[in-house]
């Protein structure tokens, strides 16, 4: 059996693509290790998905799944470990099976890169966060810390400045990596304190985060310093799940899949990409869903043209 389209990944991009493909009556299979992607690991409410107000990550996943099931979309739980193209046909290795399709959408997402400090995993969803746009409003009139000194960290701090009383930005090196414009904008808020040469030791608290412990890398005594903080935002980058693509797609320096912004196609004809695994700039649920829809529409056009 050869599918018209195989979608790899069960996050908002993959499920959105599958919904569009099912509506187009394409013979489609969605393969996912789990449904929801990063939403499945989200323990706080999502407040920025249009039309839904406030909703939990798990409830939003359920709505995506219900919509797909309503359209009789075909799904399979499993991990994809290899993808190759033989002539005009893609071969997808998932578990012990080799599945075939005329087109493929890769929507495998990315996982936040962990800082690797004690307390980080224990307080995930209890003050330790990876998305300022998602969780920033929860820390209104509180003090927060941002780990990182690049543009992502400063963009997060700028967003947090709308809500938090004070923002500590901790950079391990002796100089910041963020653009000068971002640094200037953050300083103008009057809420930020920049800490260089910060060696993060651990996150502490009772039920929720209460403080971040670090030491000054230039201090030979190695004295511990406590920062009172209700939230700790880790901005150490993301790890896109693109290793299985081999030479079918080109990756940028961050390991994200490069693609044609007009139709979401990679360097390989018939291979499309959507969501956080791609080099799309903004890593948001609504953006991933939109990119999934766009990839599905582009794949439909590709399949239609290839039949002519």
Summary tags:
single chain, 308 residues, seven-stranded mixed beta sheet, 30% strand
What does this structure look like?
The chain has 308 residues and is α/β, with parallel strands linked by helices. It has six helices and 19 strands. The strands form five sheets. Strands 1, 2, 5, 6, 7, 8 and 19 form a seven-stranded mixed beta sheet that branches. A five-stranded parallel beta sheet has the order 10-17-11-12-13, with helices on one face. Helix 1 runs parallel beside helix 2, helix 1 (12-23) packs parallel to helix 6 and helix 4 runs parallel beside helix 5. The longest helix is centred in the C-terminal third of the chain and has 22 residues, at 285-306.
SSE string = EHEEEHEEEEEEHEHEHEEEEEEEH
Spatial separation of the terminal alpha carbons: 21 Å
Largest sheet: 7 strands, mixed
Continuous helix count? 6
TL;DR of this structure?
With 308 residues, the chain is α/β, with parallel strands linked by helices. The radius of gyration is 21 Å and the shape is elongated.
Topology of helices and strands:
Blueprint: E1 2-8, H1 12-23, E2 28-32, E3 45-46, E4 55-56, H2 57-70, E5 74-77, E6 80-86, E7 89-94, E8 97-106, E9 110-112, E10 128-129, H3 132-135, E11 143-147, H4 151-160, E12 166-170, H5 180-188, E13 192-195, E14 198-205, E15 209-216, E16 224-228, E17 231-234, E18 238-240, E19 271-273, H6 285-306
Helix pairs in contact: 1-2, 1-6, 4-5
């Amino acid at each position: 059996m050869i599918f018209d389209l195989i979608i790899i990944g069960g996050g908002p991009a993959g499920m959105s693509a599958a919904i569009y493909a099912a509506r187009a009556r394409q013979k489609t299979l969605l393969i996912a290790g789990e449904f929801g992607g990063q939403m499945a690991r989200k323990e706080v409410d999502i407040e920025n998905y249009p039309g839904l107000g406030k909703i939990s990550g798990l409830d939003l996943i359920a709505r995506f799944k219900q919509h797909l099931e309503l359209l009789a979309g075909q799904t399979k739980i499993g991990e994809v470990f290899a993808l190759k193209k033989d002539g005009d046909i893609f071969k997808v290795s998932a578990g012990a099976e080799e599945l075939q399709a005329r087109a493929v959408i890769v929507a495998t997402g990315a996982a936040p890169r962990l800082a690797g400090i004690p307390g980080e995993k224990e307080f995930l969803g209890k003050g330790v966060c990876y998305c300022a746009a998602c969780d920033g409003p929860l820390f209104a009139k509180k003090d927060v810390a941002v780990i990182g000194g690049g543009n992502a960290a400063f963009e997060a701090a700028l967003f947090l400045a709308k809500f938090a009383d004070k923002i500590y930005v901790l950079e391990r090196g002796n100089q910041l990596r963020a653009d000068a414009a971002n640094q200037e904008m953050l300083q103008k808020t009057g809420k930020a304190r920049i800490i260089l040469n910060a060696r993060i030791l651990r996150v502490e608290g009772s039920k929720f985060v209460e403080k971040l412990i670090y030491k000054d890398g230039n201090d030979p005594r190695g004295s511990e310093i406590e920062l009172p903080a209700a939230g700790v935002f880790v901005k150490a980058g993301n790890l896109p799940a693109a290793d299985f693509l081999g030479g079918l797609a080109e990756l940028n320096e961050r390991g994200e899949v490069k693609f044609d912004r007009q139709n979401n196609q990679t360097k390989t004809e018939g291979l499309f990409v959507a969501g956080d695994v791609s080099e799309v700039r903004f890593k948001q649920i609504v953006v991933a869903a939109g990119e999934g829809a766009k990839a599905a529409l582009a794949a439909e056009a590709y399949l239609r043209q290839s039949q002519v």
